[in-house]
């Protein structure tokens, strides 16, 4: 069985699933609301307080939807016995997870395209000021978040044995990377023995959290990197440079590849232990 075959199967199942349309309705209402809020600002070019608020609102909802949708997709295959049947075909867990990733990305990007497209149309109908650049920026920001978090969701699904474990794992990762990450960073930095360790530690912690990394890079790309202070001066240099996007994509790809291959490795180990 090929990767694209798994992806096509995932897309068909995904668009038949009522959860997909529930998330689509929630995401559409949410997107329309925040873009109408953004459009009320006199200037929508560059970074404003409202832009930061909208980005934070996206960070709170989208990763949670992605984590639940992705982890449930894998956990259901195990719990309902579908994987036992699929494993009789010549397909490895790695190919299966990559196929899942492609299928889920297609579903999520379609949802985001529909939500932001509908929001853009509604803001025009309500005669609100919203630049195309702002709409594209939020869509790209959301899409990159979804692409990275789907791989993490598949890792959670590979670890989980059933829906409940997937639910707990998804909410746990969301709570860690979105809700309490700032507090953990402050606590970690405050316990460092030397001031010289603050800058490198802060940068490493930022890379370790995909949501924070995407947020910081996105804000720097629109010219508001000074908001993060002197500790990120080096990041502003490379993020806004000619190779900034290449480095950013390389780190994101590293997250995606590592998550899927770690998930496949653990899944293989658990299958071998189960047979033993």
Give a verbal description of the structure.
The chain crosses the membrane at residues 21-37, 57-76, 97-124, 136-159, 166-187, 243-267. GO terms for molecular function: ABC-type transporter activity. The structure is a single chain. The longest helix has 33 residues, at 93-125. It is built from 12 helices and no strands. It has one domain (3-275). It has 276 residues and is mainly alpha-helical. The chain is 80% helix and 0% strand. The two termini are 26 Å apart. The protein has helices spanning 3-16, 18-39, 49-79, 82-86, 93-125, 132-159, 163-179, 181-190, 198-208, 210-221, 233-239, 244-275.
Task: Give a concise summary.
This protein has twelve helices and no strands.
Throw out a few tags for this protein.
276 residues, mainly alpha, 12 helices, 80% helix, 0% strand, globular
